[in-house]
């Protein structure tokens, strides 16, 4: 009995099993919950999975434009628009440039023919198209002339003349203010206005 007791005391306890079934179930539950959460975030567009040619699956990135979104994993954000793209877009658009925006003829004698001209230049990087023949809005006075434009399409760097020729006679004296409208595909100034002022005496 003594020998049996000594052997029993010196025999080590069997090692505890590496994993308990309850712990395995808990880990599996956590893994499924995390997978479901990432799937839900992906469906709502809060998480994107960019393709990474150096490896798979690539870092996932939380979209910064969604209010309240928080990063799930640190990752280098790849720019979607190359540097300088906005400047290139602006430079490639047509651009209408005029040599002056107002011509004041001062006092003009009745029955005298006068002429004025504006120089229109395409300062952009794409062809400029004048959408319709320029027209005059009478702000003061009467009897506006018909504007004449040399070309309706200008390539980059090209210029043309917009001219007006008119005369006033008895009964048409006084101040005249004509506003010329030039409508083009310039995205910044689609309706450019030019003023011609005269006072007939």
Question: Could you provide a short overview of the structure?
Answer:
The chain has 201 residues and is α+β, with helices and mostly antiparallel strands. Helix content is 19%, strand content 31%.
What does this structure look like?
- The structure is a single chain.
- This protein starts with a helix and ends with a strand.
- The protein has two domains: 23-78, no CATH class; 94-200, Immunoglobulins (Immunoglobulin-like), CATH 2.60.40.
- The chain is built from three helices and twelve strands; from the N terminus they run H-H-E-E-H-E-E-E-E-E-E-E-E-E-E.
- The chain is an alpha+beta fold and 201 residues long.
- The strands form four sheets. The protein has a four-stranded antiparallel beta sheet, with no helix packed on it.
Question: What's the count of strands?
Answer: 12
Q: Estimate percent helicity.
A: 10-25%
Our estimate of the beta-strand percent is 25-35%
The domain count comes to 2
Annotated CATH architecture of the largest domain: Sandwich
Question: Strands of the largest sheet, in order across it?
Answer: 3-5-10-8
Element-level helix/strand string: HHEEHEEEEEEEEEE
User: What is the CATH topology assignment of the largest domain?
Assistant: Immunoglobulin-like
Largest sheet: 4 strands, antiparallel
Categorize the overall geometry: rod-shaped
């Amino acid at each position: 009995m003594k020998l049996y007791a000594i052997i029993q005391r010196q025999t080590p306890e069997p090692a505890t099993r590496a994993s308990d079934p309850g712990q395995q179930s808990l880990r599996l539950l956590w893994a499924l919950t995390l997978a479901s959460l990432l799937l839900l975030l992906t469906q709502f567009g809060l998480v994107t999975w960019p393709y990474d040619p150096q490896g798979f699956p690539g870092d996932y990135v939380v979209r910064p434009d969604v209010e309240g979104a928080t990063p799930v994993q640190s990752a280098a954000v790849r720019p979607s628009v190359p540097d300088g793209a906005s400047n290139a877009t602006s430079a490639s658009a047509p651009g209408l440039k005029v040599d002056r925006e107002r011509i004041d003829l001062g006092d003009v004698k009745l029955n005298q023919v006068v002429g004025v001209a504006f120089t229109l230049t395409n300062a952009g990087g794409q062809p400029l198209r004048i959408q319709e023949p320029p027209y005059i809005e009478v702000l003061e006075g009467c009897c506006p002339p018909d504007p004449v434009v040399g070309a309706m399409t200008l390539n980059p760097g090209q210029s043309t003349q917009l001219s007006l020729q008119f005369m006033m006679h008895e009964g048409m004296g006084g101040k005249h203010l004509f506003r010329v409208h030039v409508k083009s595909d310039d995205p910044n100034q689609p309706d450019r206005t030019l003023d011609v002022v005269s006072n007939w005496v």
